[in-house]
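Sample intake sheet
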Amino acid sequence: MFHFQYLFKKIRKHHVVRENKGVLVTFILFSLFFASYMVVVEGISVVDSYYFLVTTATTVGYGDLSPQTNLGKFLATAYMIVGIALLGLFLGKVTEVMVNISSRKKRGLLRVKGEVDLIIAGYPGGEKVENIIRELRNDSRYEEANIVCVNNQLEMKPRWMTHLDVEFVQGVVSDSKVLEMAGVKTAHTVLILANDPSTITSDDHSTSICAVIERVNPKVRTIIEKVRQDEMIFEVVDADTIVEVAPASVLAQEVLDPGATELQSAIFSTYTRGTQFNFHYQGDSKPWTEVALALLTKDTIPEGFRNPGEKSFNLLPAHDDLIQSGALIKYRGIELLTSLD
């Protein structure tokens, strides 16, 4: 009984019901009068009367039941006209509601439903965000993932988001209500992008977002781009992963497999252990396995090779791929090797 009362209250509060209260009351009273007439005067059962009202109001008119008196025929005709009018009104209101929902969804004003795998906060540009998501969608782990973009730079959801099945929420990202609309309470990861990589004031915006996220959902993993060199402000807001402004492919890899940006920094900086080097191989042709084992004994990490005449490196060699004399062998290590002996 409680559920019926609750449902009735919800229906009464709906704006469609409030706006058309007079029409609905008139229709209900007319229906009760017509049903009573069909039972009392025409002599049909209550169930048949209900069935007749529905088929008449919807203009189906199977013909298995029909009034026999002149007044009954007049009432049926009038009820049919009223039914057509109300049906048109109902369909119009339904269409209006559906259009309104679609419009609000495109403008990012609807709450995201279900669990969220990734929230991308900030919008440095459509191309970068789109490329991040394309990289993620290319991985089986994120092929069907629920991804949400939240920012206040866009007024409408762009086509590429629809094409890549990405949700959009519009609003100030540091607002807890906006983040909750985006599903931050169920989110697994939040990637906070620097809105303007050319100015350090972008970090102030990013850290304010991170601070609110950590308060709303401390368990979520936060990845934050930084412009300034100092990391103290990011550590204060408990950011899990702090990265310098990076290409879309690197950020996508960091989302998929933590540590990708650390690996990038190690490879492409002479200040870190694990810098990449090239060794000019002058020995006899050998399978990759032999050369890789020799590199491992030198406390290095073999990455691949490029034989003479080839334009690109083979960075994932098979164990029996042959390395020819004059090849460049790429490895990660502490110093440049002069030989493999």
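Comment: The chain has three domains: 14-106, 118-267, 275-333. The mean pLDDT is 87.
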